[in-house]
Design brief:
The chain has about 70 residues and is mostly helical. The chain has one domain. The protein is built from 2 helices and no strands. The longest helix is centred in the middle third of the chain and has 13 residues, at about 35-45. The chain is globular.
């Protein structure tokens, strides 16, 4: 569909199996998921998350890892 309100929007991919998709970012500049979370926390939230919180987020992302369905 060609919806004017959707112009210049990005379709964000699922986080499923994100732990298997390194390197990260559009240019592949970050190989480590921990570092990617740290960078995005600063860029999007303007905060420096403690390593413990980053580890919790990375653990959650690992929980989204599973087998891909066979079609």
């Amino acid at each position: 569909k060609n919806i004017p309100a959707d112009k210049k929007l990005f379709k964000v991919p699922s986080l499923r199996n994100v732990t298997r998709t390194a390197p990260y970012f559009h240019d592949g500049s970050v190989a480590d998921l921990h570092q990617a979370v740290k960078i995005m926390a600063k860029a999007q939230l303007n905060t420096d998350l403690p390593d413990e919180e980053i580890d919790d987020i990375v653990a959650f992302l690992h929980a989204l890892t599973g087998e891909l369905p066979v079609f």
